[in-house]
Amino acid sequence: MRITATVLSLAFAAGTCHAAGFDCGKASTAVEKAICASPAISALDGELGEAFRAALKNHPDKADALKTDQRHWLAERDASVAAYLGDHPGKPLAADVARYPTRIAFLRGLDAKAPKPLDTVQALLPRLPKGSDDVLADLAKAGASVAVAAEVSLDDAKAFPFEPDAAVKKALAELDASSGYRKLDGMPVSSVFSVGGTASCWTEVPFRIEGRKAIAVDAPGAWASDCMSRHGMARVRSDVIATVLSNPSPDEMNLGVSRWEGTRFGPDAQLTLRFDHALVSGGSACAPKQSPCEDFAAVAMAAAARYERSPVQGTLDRPLKGAAKVSYDALLAAARAPSGLAPKGESATFRDLPDFGGAVGEGMMTGYGDEATFFPIDFRGETLLGYIGHGHVGWRVNDDWMLSAWRLKAGTLEPVASMYVKVERGALLLSAVVPAPEAESL
Q1: Would you say 420 and 285 are in contact if contact means Cβ atoms under 8 Å apart?
Q2: Cis (ω within 30 of 0) for the bond into 188?
Q3: At what angle do helices 30-37 and 63-87 cross, to 10 degrees?
Q4: Rounded to the nearest 5 degrees, what angle is found at the Cα of 290, between the Cα atoms of 286 and 296?
Q5: d(CA 282, CA 280)
Q6: Contacts 24+ apart (CB under 8 A), 406-409
Q7: Shortest CA distance to 349 belongs to which of 370, 374, 364, 333?
Q8: What DSSP character marks residue 15?
Q9: Which residues, at least 6 apart from 260, have a Cβ–Cβ distance to it below 8 Å?
Q10: How confident is the model at residue 170 (pLDDT cuts 50, 70, 90)?
């Protein structure tokens, strides 16, 4: 599923409106029209096009990886813009929609020299296995010159093996069930930490080790009020670093590091890794029970592969005629009725994926969120009401896709088939040094 050079040249042709990275005169989707309507975002889109062309020119050996990764990012952009339009109807796009500056910085970062010890990490990346979710731990397992500090649980402050100063003693007094300290033989620095809440927010007090004493030091900037990430410490060859790891999508991993400089941590630096991904079946089912459904799996997988290229309303729509159009219009009307799946003006937030008593998406998030969309899907000679979206539990959302199909029976929507499609991280495509982000808090 590579995007061709011809398609890319069209996608990044010189625009006619606010210097967008595509021809605004040919904008056809709601996303493209919204970009062209915003001078600020359109200018950023043009800047992105220039950065992409420069990356292709400067790195011809990475052309295939760049094209694949750009296709993945454009899908992320489309989803982000569509979500903003849905939440803010009639309003122009916000300046930070789709994180254009971050993407531009990544493409330009392909030419940047990595600071120590990220230069060592980048040199070791050819050893990184497919599907990695922890670059340093996986490099260590692959035999690279990396050692990751262990997290030692600490339920009782009396079990702490050092003599704490006042700041460390205060941290120990606030221990909870998720507390601990970091241990790596010969490491001159460690930390007392706790992590909790559904957002996995970290509280961390680093300390230097002098004999048996634990003396608090200032935390790296990236550790301040940090959530939805994974903290750690490691040794890369002779360098000791504090780390922050995040996996915002199957396509991206961010490794933030701060190098120990003897008595304090140095400046923050960040390495962003971009990956390919694959769609894998997480199970399918047909009514009335968990009956064989390989034919629906094939139809659903094809729909998911097409939809993920631009996951917005309308991507899977197509012109219908005759009986198929009459049937689908009736299905859609029933779904939008007050007692339907998604009443008009409302969303079908957290409606469960029909599994017909089987194990479709077992152990995963299987509640449709409000970004899910209807589309016509043909199955076993019928035009049915298809429904596709991510899985949700509460405010949390995953990257997998769920698809279902309904028919109209006696005026009521009846589920016909369902499929859960896993999005699995694949091989590393690219890595680049980017500006370290400012600390954020929830």
Answers
A1: no
A2: no
A3: 80
A4: 30
A5: 6
A6: 406/331, 406/335, 406/341, 407/331, 407/382, 408/327, 408/330, 408/331, 408/334
A7: 370
A8: P
A9: 188, 189, 239, 240, 241, 242, 266
A10: very high
Angle at 261 between CA 259 and CA 262, to 5 degrees: 135
Kindly write down the DSSP assignment for every residue of 77-97, as one continuous string: HHHHHHHHHHHSTTPPPPTTG
Phi-psi region of 380 (alpha: psi -120 to 50; beta: other; left: phi over 0): left
Contact 110, 429 (CB under 8 A): no
Look up residue 163 and give its two tokens: 């003599």
Two tokens, residue 336: 């939008």
Quote the strand ranges of 238-381, DSSP E.
Answer: 239-249, 252-260, 265-286, 351-352, 367-368, 373-379
pLDDT above 60 (res 18): no
For 107, residues 6+ apart whose C-beta sits below 8 A from its C-beta are: 48, 51, 52, 54, 55, 432
For residue 26, the 8-state DSSP code is G
402-427 per-position pLDDT tens digit: 999 999 999 899 999 999 999 999 99
pLDDT value at residue 250: 97
Q: Token pair for residue 67? A: 């094209």
- Judged by DSSP in three states, 367 sits in strand
Which residues lie closer than 8 Å to 126 by C-beta, 6 or more apart?
none
Of the chain, the percentage scoring pLDDT greater than 70 comes to 93
What proportions of the chain, in percent to the nearest 5, are helix, strand and coil? 30, 35, 35
- Using CA atoms, how far residue 389 sits from 4, 85, 333, 415, in Å, is 27, 17, 19, 16
CA–CA gap between residue 21 and residue 47 (Å, rounded):
7
Per the structure block, which two tokens stand in for 285?
Answer: 């089912």
What is residue 411's three-state secondary structure? coil
Q: Which amino acid is at 132?
A: S
Q: Quick one: tokens of 237?
A: 């060859």
State the Cα–Cα distance between residues 271 and 34, nearest whole angstrom. Answer: 31
Residue type at 110 in one-letter notation: L
Residue 108 CA: distances (Å) to CA of 58, 114, 248, 343, 356: 10, 13, 20, 46, 49
Task: Identify residue 228 by its one-letter amino acid code.
Answer: M
